[in-house]
Amino acid sequence: MASSLLRLRTPLSSSAAAVLRNQRALRHATPLSVRLMSTEKQYEFILTSRPADGVALITLNRPKALNALCTPLFNELNEAVKAFDDDDSVRALVLTGSERAFAAGADIKEMKDKEFSEVFKGKFLESWSLLTTIRKPIIAAVSGYALGGGCELALMCDIILASPTATFGQPEINIGVIPGGGGSQRLAHAIGKSRTMEIVLTGRNFSAQEAADWGMVSRVVPAEEGSVVDAAVKMAALIASKSAIAVQAGKEVVNAAYEQSLQEGLRYERRVFHSLFATKDQKEGMSAFAEKRKPTWTHS
After folding, report:
1. What pLDDT, on the 0 to 100 scale, is given for residue 126?
2. Is 176 among the residues known to form the active site?
3. Which of 3, 32, 230, 249 is deepest in the core (most CB within 10 A)?
4. Active site residue 198
5. 269 is catalytic
């Protein structure tokens, strides 16, 4: 017994001690399979990830259909953006598709046999506009085709970045209908009446450069700068680094400019500006500026 105690009191070698520590750690560790399991919900038609601090990325994922927008896809998209909007750790979102197609339009196979009573009573496409109720900024990263519903989806976002390959259009006139997801209205706000009339009535597509020249997209991301998704994530990360309350207030007042007269908009902007003086981030931001230091936001 004494010899056993003596052996136990003898100092362990560094390698033996490391093995013992590892064995003890493994006994108390959470199983690896649980720790590595993603906390993001898995969807059928979209992919979600968090590529940067405060940033959520949603990728449309119907590659065989060029990301055609069907009701199940939009239901998943609405669910995902709502979940991210409710998540305080997410402060900006990026929405994208594939290199070939952001979204090539609505799923014609889904709607071709519908009747008036069905689409009217069922409020067909009305749920698409739920995206515009999200308070956090959404950046569309557009490559390839963004036609019909795809163009409308991009227009619902707050900022649009386009790759040089992006092609926009509202070709519904070619199948005997008109835009039904907001294209005629949001496009007119973005590029004016005459150009919108041309696009809607002729069904012609327009390029990323035209969209940039007309003010519909923020900018075209050149190939030498990398992918448009990388540029959108970088922009989203920059936005996410600001005060979340100020960012959401900024989005709210800019959107109000499209729904109110100039005088009403100016009055509303001042009220929201004044309200920010009740936040901790206003005090921190202005104090940091005066003290020549970087602010530490609490988003409160």
Report:
1. 81
2. no
3. 249
4. no
5. no
In this prediction the pTM is: 0.84
List the catalytic residue out of 106, 146, 154, 249. Answer: 106
Among candidate residues 54, 149, 150, 183, the one labeled active-site is: 149
Side chain identity at 33, as an amino acid letter?
S
Mean pLDDT over 164-188 rounds to: 95
Query: Please, are residues 93 and 172 in contact by the beta-carbon 8 Å criterion?
Result: no
Sheet with 219-220: strands ordered across:
46-52, 55-60, 92-96, 138-142, 159-162, 219-220
Beta bridge partners of 52: 55
Which residue in this structure is represented by tokens 């003086």? Answer: 277
Q: Give the angle 205-211-212 at the CA atoms, nearest 5°.
A: 155
Q: Could you say which of 103, 172, 240, 249 is catalytic?
A: 172
From residue 228, give the alpha-carbon distance in Å to each of 80, 111, 156, 217, 239. 21, 31, 18, 12, 16
At 12-33, the pLDDT tens digits run 454 444 444 544 444 444 343 3
Q: Mind listing the pLDDT tens digit for each residue in 98-154? A: 999 999 988 888 888 888 888 888 877 787 788 999 999 999 999 999 999 999 999
Torsion of CA 26, 31, 35, 36, to 10 degrees: 110
